[in-house]
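Could you help me review a protein record that somebody else here produced? My question to you is simply how this chain folds and whether the tokens agree. Thanks in advance; the entry in question is below:
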Amino acid sequence: MAHNRPTNVTGAMKILMHCKCLVFLSFAYSFLREEMPSDDGMVEFFGFQHLRVLDLSYCELTGPIPVWLSKLKKLQILNLIHSRITGSVPIWLATLPSLFYINVSVNLISGEFPKELCSLPMLVSRQPAGQVDHEYLEFPIFAQSQLRAESLEYNSLSYTQSLQYNYVSYFPPSIYLHNNSINGNIPKEIGQLKLLHVLDLGVNNFSSSIPDQISNLKKLETLDVSMNHLFGNIPASLTSLNFLKDFNCSYNNLEGPIPRSTQFQSFNSSAFEGNPKLCSAPLPNECRPINDVGTDNKNNQDEHNGHNIPWFHIFVASIVGFWGSV
């Protein structure tokens, strides 16, 4: 039911929650700028007991993520991208035993990254959720892609083509928090999410170092921590992420050499730009040898301790001696 212009999202939810076999619900690009169905509007909520996919993307819904969603014990995919959601990332998301895809990018979410989210059962291990009737949807998903016909006859005419996906492959295990106002540290507990494929924390206010524990996410394919306030080095252990194909740490306060590996040096330099103190390939600025830095520090210390201060004392002593003579 996406790409329509219905109104009264709360009323629609109250009607559809009685569809006991409903497993996939998409209202993308609908109910524009209405309020998120709140807990008050869903009194005595008992529906959607078999719902696996809830898509309210690009609806620009306002208000916090409602607590009644915590009752959807079979929910696997929650897509709320590009709305006006406020509040923090709910801790109760970690209680959903089948949830493996969260997308709340481009919202107004604040607060810190909850450590509890690092214990999502389906991202830590499939075993617990396997006991909750974990089945995949059988029908495919069709997504349109923009293509261009390069020929004299069509004169670079653009057209769309629908590509068929299995919904599990189209929605890999992911946490998208891109473009919000989330602050604080990236928790070290994030290394527990060993089945995670995508971690997008870009365009937020994180102010910590990149946890070395991210190297435990051996299935990680995409890591975006760009446009934050991160500091310190890029952990060398990240070179062990063999499936990592997209990486972006641009526009932070990172420093030191970029870890050496065929993989990291293959990323575009734009993935590292905006960190003036980062060095080595693929960036053009080379790292200074450690010995040179040590020599410079020693020279500066000698200059401070061995040249400037003694001459000052000699001058003062001369003045005092002169007036003492007088």
